Structure prediction request, 776 residues.
Amino acid sequence: MSTARVTFLGVRHHSPACAGLVRRTIRELRPAYVLVEGPADMNDRIGELLLGHELPIAVFSHYRDTERVATSWAPLCAYSPEWVALTEGRTAGAEVRFIDLPAWHPAFTDRPDGAANRYADAETRYSRATERLRARYRVDTVDALWDRVFEIADPDGLQDRLDAYFALVRGDTEADDGDRAREQHMASWVRAAVAHAGGRPVLVVTGGFHQPALRALTAAPGTSPDAEPAAWPPVPVPPDGAAGGSFLVPYSFRQMDAFAGYQSGMPSPGYYQHLWDEGPDAAAKTLRRTVVERLRARLPVSTAALISAQTLTEGLAALRGHPRPARVDVLDGLAAALITDDLDQPLPWNTDGPLRPGAHPAVVETVVACTGDRTGRLHPDTPLPPLVDHVTAEEIRLGLDGDRTLDLELANPRGLERSRFLHQLRILGIPGHTRLTGPDHGADPRDHETWEPCPRTGRDAALTEAGAYGARPDEAAAALLARRLRDTSTAADAGTTAALLFDAVLCGAGTLSRDLLDSLPHRIRTTGDPGPLGRALAVVLGLWRHDRVFGTARDPLLGTVLDHAVDRLFHLVENLHSGPPRVDVPRLRALTAARDALLHAAPALTLTPETAAATAARIARDRHAPADLRGAALGLRCALGALAEPAGEAEAFAAAADPAVLGDWLAGLLALAREEVLRPVPKGEQSLLDTLDGVVTTMTDDVFLHALPALRQAFAFFPPRERERVAQLLLDRRNLHGSARTLLRTTADPLLLARAAALEEHTDLLLDRHALGAPR
Prediction:
């Protein structure tokens, strides 16, 4: 089939230059068909897409079966070539069709690059050609290259330059299986459109990477125009037992911005909107004005600096050979004129990737100003997934549709039902309420929750996206938690699984909770890190001990998980002889959970408290074990009542008196035996605090100052009231009279202390930057 009647336009998604080319081509060709890269399952709903929404919007596609969950977004804004193809094609009287596979198809979800959104530009996957072009044009990024060659260049000859660019990018690169499947499907639509067009032009608008392949696939001789038109290609549908489809959702420039992490976006969508509306010269002036207005609201910006920025922008554009100022010219000129501090990292518009943490405040404000604050809104007649109406009805039924703080009693059936519904919305990421208080983990016995209203910005889009998981909030939350469980299956992270278990319990997902419990023993047996194991143990122990509200207290399966977790944890810590000298807080929390299990769930455990105390004694005497672990082992023996005479462990205290490890050792001790340190002893006997005081008072001033930071960290395990108790005991030990509370208060100027803390933090950052810092 000859392609003489077919015009292929390869475009970059969200490019004003490409959008303008599409508009001019449609007005000149007056084609019979405009074929657009987009999900073909939306063809029956193009009228819905063109209802009159406020852009940007996105086509949200989803798929779910027992093995796979897939979601994707196809954003559309005023300067998206695909949007212009739809609107201009409809205005010109053309038949407008999407020709790509549905976005839930495995051709998208099984990508080797793991792309999370609908479009994946060629330059992110085939960088060799663009690297050569960047060197040729002496630019730092693909975006700067694109602006130089296309956005600010003369529009004459634009199509030829685009064809040459995408031919170079595609080259002889072998497409992956997903791209081949998509291109075969799109080519079948092109052939069918030519057969139906009766000799009239057909316009094909696709991502530039696909254009060379589509030309080749449709270049073979075909049927005569007088022959019977070929049937339109069948559109794949989800298999039996699977759910899939597409909905429209409101979108925002913030979500489209490459600086915010959107993989296929162009940066600074606010700037490109002005470029589309006003042209390059006006867009450069508008960008400079927008940035300055935002900066002036937060930082001092002088008129002289503005004049300097404009002069630098014009000079940079001339030096770089730009016919008119580009986006990077404006931003570089502003940065040179307004930022006088040393920068810790390159300017974000001169590097690839999202904005990095720690950027200069002026840089951050500049990026935000370039992004723009535009947020889309759907037309009121837009169909929405069933979940939206179901959530609205449930909020009314449960009395949760108001704007007030909610106090829920979980022991009350209605309070529990309302709590479960709110947790389902929380899991689904639907804004509306934020929980202030309530049980945070399985070991938290509270049966009361407080929720406060929060802004509902983005709620419609969140509800639409959550509709991919089910028609009801309980069904959708359970499906999302099940997906998260599958996503963590290869990591064998018992702590993550336990957190999912607690979320499932809060949501009332009973069947899912049993599935999670069934998977926990295997993950526990394969966990090699005490931290995640401790998180799992704490959650399961709390559910076993306290969860009469949710009906899991003394559950036999929970008891089995407890047994596995405690046994595995003691196996791990007894053989631990490596790691930098530091306090491993997750490990100490794990031992704390094991202590509580031995004290409160002994009937469910194979390991007895006596055996655990003997193991702790071996760890406490093992000089090769980490210092915090040795201290925790001694604390565990105290908590289990294995130390009838704590003074008998004075040798262990003396061995830990080295200021390099004393703070770590004490942190372990206090994490496991804080109450035992404060427990009064009969007159004439020595307490743990007495022994500790004796060790500290024998230190020289230099040794004490060396140990002081670690000691402060260790005593941070005491809450303020208990610190006051420690101070009072130390006063009593010395037969001194005075206020323990006053002893804990400093007379130093608070502003001086704040400046000192800031200086310490800055010094630490400098040491870390130059790799001079000590191990933390």
